[in-house]
Amino acid sequence: MAEKDDTLKKVISHSKEYGFVFQSSEIYDGLSATYDYGQYGSELKNNIKKYWWMSMVQMHENIVGIDAAIFMHPTTWKASGHIDAFNDPLIDNKDSKKRYRADVLIEDYIAKIEGKINKDITKAKKRFGDDFNETEFRNTNPNVTRRQEQINDVNTRMADALNSDDLENVRQLIIDLGIKCAVSGTANWTEVRQFNLMFGTELGSVSGESATIYLRPETAQGIFVNYLNVQKTSRMKLPFGIAQIGKAFRNEIVARQFIFRMREFEQMEMQFFIKPGTQMEWYQYWKNTRMKWHNALGFGEDNYRFHDHIKLAHYADAACDIEFNYPMGFKELEGIHSRTDFDLGAHQEHSKKNLTYFDSETNERYLPYVLETSIGLDRMFLSVLTKSYAEETLKDGSSRVVLRIPPALAPVKVAIFPLTKKDGLPEKARAIMHKIKLDHNCQYEEKDAIGKRYRRQDAIGTPFCITVDHETLENNTITIRERDSMKQERVDINDLAQIISSKVSISNLINQE
Ligand code: GAP
Which residues contact ligand 1 via a Cβ below 6 A? Predict the structure, then answer.
């Protein structure tokens, strides 16, 4: 656990030192749970967006993208259920005055028991080596089965209490489990209350004429209210999808763990409109498709897992998360939700507009069902950064910090160094860069020894460094050094564009999906 926490701390300080993520309004001591992306962070973020957009929109003939406004008519949120039901159960510790999400306190308790199970499994793996059968061990080891039963009991009690909105029982569960405040160490809890997560603000400048509007808590509603506009103007037939990338805002009670849980964040969402009755088939399809998208990055299949929702959101008939193995454990990265016709039905009722789709094959009118994939861009960013961060001791005894970011997502693709600042080498290096920068984000560096320049590029994850030396002037060749292996190769300048493109193009990732 200590080692895992350490990685997050290191990544936070590395992000700041190398221009990936800064605390927002830092000169005023910052604003909690709000962050700014720096020069390399915004490049990485843009590349993740590009990867998602290409896979979802460009590669699917039946998916198109839109960019809806953040502000929407206030009735949108009444219809979507967010005004009435977009709540988190909160609880305060009376001694420390610290506020918690009641369900998160219980989930953390469960995670501790899971941690103990995992420890037992790791020990047994070591003891039995290749003969170890994890499923059998989970089903038969008395310690593990007892702990698993305990987890199941807690999960059932939590789901029952939350699904029936029985907040007194949620509190009782916290007390029965002996959960204590991490600050005061006491179990002196208030009652559990529901807290709405939407940020409201006033529209209109004349007093008395204003109305409360909300910063959208999800991008999805901009897609639902536009679905017929898009369908008609693109002449699309079911099944078809609408994708969008944009900001969302939630007044999170407990915003923590760096950019994992923020009050202002970005989502990449896709609503897939389907024939009612086909939702389980599409649910499976999108679960597989999205998991492949993640695995194509090469961080290892073990770092992802599905987690079925116990408490379904007010709009879903099936839902799961793709969880990622962050330094603080497996946590939600993406949600896949079967939203039925809840949203379209509610908008039809509140707007009094006919939102049905005409199916020309069956000559019927009906409301499509919707399958949603929803991923947090900032959580994706954090997953990439935490798994890419590595500290290495090199053969000569020196050390380096390297971000092994998949080349297609790396902020800078190529760094170009003249060996010295004279003899026409800078001019030659700049001429090479001038050509490459048409296709790739490049950086020119001439200060310090080559070794130091390599270290700086390793620290921001640049996959290739190119050195221009005196031989370059004689025979038109340069050395190209690869980030991960640190191998250097002498190649012809004319082959450079092809070598780089073959490694850093996003299409490499798409081809592996
Ligand atoms: N439209 C469905 C929806 O919004 P969600 O599970 O509430 O579903 C989708 O959110 C994704 O948005 C999550 O899987 C997560 O990656 C991201 N997300 C949600 N709240 C977040 C927050 N406070 N900070 C950063 N990312 C968040």
Answer: 218, 220, 250, 252, 261-262, 265, 267, 269, 332-335, 372, 374-376, 378-379
